[in-house]
Amino acid sequence: MYLDSVKIKKLCKSKGITLNELIKKAGISKTAYYHLIRKKQLLVNSILEIAICLDTETKQITSFWNQAEEQYYHLNSKLEELCLKYPELNRDNAWHTLLLLSEEPLQRLDRALLRGQKINIY
Amino acid sequence: MDKKSIFTEQEENFLINLRKSGVEFIIVGLSAATLQGAPVVTQDVDLWFKNLQDPNIAKVARKLGGSYIPTINLNPPMFAGKGLGLFDIVMTLHGLNKFEEEVTNTIKLKIRDQEILVLKLERIIKSKEAANREKDKLVLPVLRDSLIVIKERSREN
């Protein structure tokens, strides 16, 4: 996930402010902003902080490099929601279920059988 | 399915042919759980038949080049032959009701043009809780967690 300068410019336009004003509102220096724009990977927390300062959602200022990355972030946020709602939930179990739910049922069965057979070998 | 698959077209054919012949059965156990998204492993596909005396079971097995071997002494009935060896026959499911009643606690899995019944995860959990074997105790926490996630996801969809 990266800060998308095109989306940020659009956001400025929709808010009727300049980029400089937006940067100021986000509470970061110009240097820091351009540093973040050039970064290929950002921490979710950094993006979240900027989005909160700008009173917007993270998706309004970011883009994903590919579908796999997008799916990962989507599932990860789902995992966080579930863990908040069900504190007793085991994160690993929940994560792997979320991953498997994105596959077709017969693919899941095949995977389980393949692993089951491997257990037999070792 | 790719070349590395275990559950191949042959196995699919068996289920489809059983269905087409009017044999009533439900996929149960951990294979049913994995079909629904539970991250567990299994070595076979458990089938629960309404009537093991149904002559079509043996007919389908023979048609696909295998065989249905009925109970001999203490040995449970089983399937033999390529494409059939993966299937186990379940005689009893602890903690569950009769086949006729449990049919309502299933989901439908579409394989090609046929719908195959799969026992719902809730019922698999109930059965494993009742069986209470060591291997069941190990897998139950995973199944319970998966059930929460699956229910939440289905609510969203």
What is the secondary structure topology, with strand pairs?
The complex is a heterodimer of chains A (122) and B (157).
Chain A: E1 2-3, H1 5-15, H2 19-25, H3 30-38, H4 44-53, E2 62-63, H5 67-85, H6 91-101, H7 105-121
Antiparallel strand pairs in A: 1-2
Chain B: H1 9-20, E1 25-28, H2 29-36, E2 45-49, H3 55-63, E3 67-69, E4 78-80, E5 87-89, H4 99-102, E6 106-111, E7 114-119, H5 121-131, H6 134-156
Parallel strand pairs in B: 1-7, 2-5
Antiparallel strand pairs in B: 1-2, 3-4, 6-7
Helix pairs in contact in B: 5-6
What's the short version?
Chain A is mainly alpha-helical and 122 residues long.
Largest sheet of chain A: 2 strands, antiparallel
N- and C-termini, Cα separation of chain A: 39 Å
**Would you report the number of β strands of chain B?**
7
Which structural class should the secondary elements of chain A be placed in?
mainly alpha
Helix content of chain B: 40-55%
Question: Compute the gyration radius of chain A: what is it?
Answer: 20 Å
Whole-angstrom Rg of chain B: 16 Å
Describe this structure in words.
The complex is a heterodimer of chains A (122) and B (157). Chain A contains 7 helices and 2 strands. A two-stranded antiparallel ribbon of chain A has the order 1-2. In chain A, 69% of the residues lie in helices and 3% in strands. With 122 residues, chain A is mainly α. The mean pLDDT of chain A is 87. Chain B has 157 residues and is α/β, with parallel strands linked by helices. Chain B is built from 6 helices and 7 strands. Chain B has helices at 9-20, 29-36, 55-63, 99-102, 121-131, 134-156, and strands at residues 25-28, 45-49, 67-69, 78-80, 87-89, 106-111, 114-119. In chain B, the strands form 2 sheets. Chain B has a 5-stranded mixed sheet. Chain B has a two-stranded antiparallel ribbon with strand order 3-4. The longest helix of chain B has 23 residues, at 134-156. The two termini of chain B are 26 Å apart. The chains are: A mainly alpha (122), B alpha/beta (157). At the A-B interface, helix 5, helix 6 and helix 7 of A face helix 2 and helix 6 of B.
